[in-house]
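DUF4843 domain-containing protein structure dump, as promised
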Amino acid sequence: MKTPTIKYSPNPILILCLLLSLISCKKKDLLYQDLPAIYINKELMTGSRDSISYSFAEKENNRLLDTIFIPVRISGTPASANRMVPLTANPGNSTAIPEQHYTIVNTSVNGGEYTAKVPVVVRRTADLKNRQVRIYLRMEPNSEFPLLISNTKTPNTTNGNPLNIYTNVFLIKLSDQILKPDTWDLSGSWFKYFFGAYSAVKYKFVIDVTGRSVWPPYARYGENAPTSDQMTIYYSRMVTALYEYEKKNGPMLDENGSQVTFPKL
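structure tokens r here:
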């Protein structure tokens, strides 16, 4: 018996579709538009990375203005022209009044640059004696930086995972009252080592006795930071002054009713 022959006429349209499919599988082109973005560079922040407490009560009595610099960084490739930094205050979360309590100075990222520092000028107003106001900073995308980066990650990793993830907002807490320094309890802080547990009464006592109203982060880093020898002298003055106070008045009590003491070194 003769074996029948099956003749097959391929469909040219089907063959074309199969060829296109194979080519697509071998080479996939990813189309990506590198939209420029900008974010608050919290890796450069000292102490707390998300907020800062600023009090004029810790400064000289005649200081009416000061400036807080916010570091920013772009993503992607630098532009040839200058671009304005779209840093604003979120009105829904802020209680500070623009141009009364603060001014965000218009700042550009210069052409060819990746970074800039935005000055935020804060003002000493009478109402800050009785309350704390909040300046809640954030990036507001614009035509020059249309992409919003909601989170940034530290370049340092553990097992491939970022050590820190930062939100792209920053809070300034502004007052003219004695406030706890943000770095008082952090590791390596000389505040905690030399002065012990924080209280507003103790901190005011430290300022009055040492005559030092401006303290750097951790009481040890930055411009005009005291040396370890200077901190030892401050500590001796504090212990002596507290002893003299207690001889005349009895124990010094803080705002919580606890006795003010200093650690034994």
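Residues 82 and 110 are 4 Å apart (CA to CA).
lmk if u need the other ones
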